[in-house]
Amino acid sequence: MTTYDPTGAEGAADAGYDAVVLAGGGARRLGGADKPGVRVGGRALLDRVLAACADAGTTVVVADPRPTTRPVTWTRESPPGGGPVAALYAGLRHTTAQDVVVLSADLPFLTEETVRRLLTVLRTSGAEGVLLTDADGRDQPLVAAYRRTALRRELTMLNGAASRVGSTAGGGLTGLPLRRLTAGLDLTRVPDPVASFDCDTWDDIATARTRIREHGHVLDEWITAVKDELGIDLDVDTGVLLDLARDAAHGVARPAAPLTTFLVGYAAARSGGGPEAVAEASRKAAALALRWADEAADAKPDAAPDATPDTSRPDAG
């Protein structure tokens, strides 16, 4: 078992993978609240996790079905409420990829970059599993990537079945702690106190909501929340839009900023949508805003030509 130094390990996460998200716990420390549905930054915790593994070939959520921002495969452990090992057993049955990302549904700061990092380390370290450690150095086996064959091996051994992971019966796994599963795996650890932060209590939820609204995060969080709410799956250069809004506000009038960006979006949609259409509409509107500002500067009294004759010149008349 080792701790991984991520320096230089980039670009090895191109191959496909599947994801299993465990979202069926009782949330006793939240008073039995529907934890996957609790919103942080306007988005349900489960949807935030699903966004981080959006490029998985198959995403399995072990919980009762509910509306989500992207389609997933639903399943449940048997019996329901049997704990994380039984839930993982149930979810793994619906996966086929060699590598499987295993996640809890309460990770507000998990990103696609974190998932890719886990897969990169898994594929370059030779380990059977790679998991994050939290701020206190504790293992987080539900923020991890594993070799599917290794998980099947350990689950089969724990369940007491010779070679049957495909069975729906996982009674032998009920109530087992995850450390019983991970103890048999060759693991690599990656420290990440932010991505590994999970929400077990209302204080954790409050901490996450506060951080989401910090200056360095709030804009990206808001844009992502708006896209989720509107059902828009579009990656655009927000810097271009911000520059356009600034130019419109400065060169025309402050209310011109939101109205201009709205019109840019409308024009892009009329042109077929997509990042290229947004970029082109933004370019045209930004050029117009600059021309508008230039004209305003030329129209200032101190910039206008002096129409008063210069009587000091001999030919003035």
From TrEMBL:
CDD domains: MobA. Transmembrane segments: none annotated. This is NTP transferase domain-containing protein. Keywords: Cytoplasm, GTP-binding, Magnesium, Metal-binding, Molybdenum cofactor biosynthesis, Nucleotide-binding, Transferase. It comes from the Bacteria. Gene3D superfamilies: Spore Coat Polysaccharide Biosynthesis Protein SpsA, Chain A. Pfam families: DUF6457, NTP_transf_3. GO terms for molecular function: transferase activity. Residues 19-160 form the MobA-like NTP transferase domain. It comes from Streptomyces cellulosae. The keyword Metal-binding applies. Residues 296-317 are annotated as: Disordered. InterPro entries: DUF6457, MobA-like_NTP_Trfase, Molybde_CF_guanTrfase, Nucleotide-diphossugar_trans. Residues 215-296 form the DUF6457 domain. The keyword Magnesium applies.
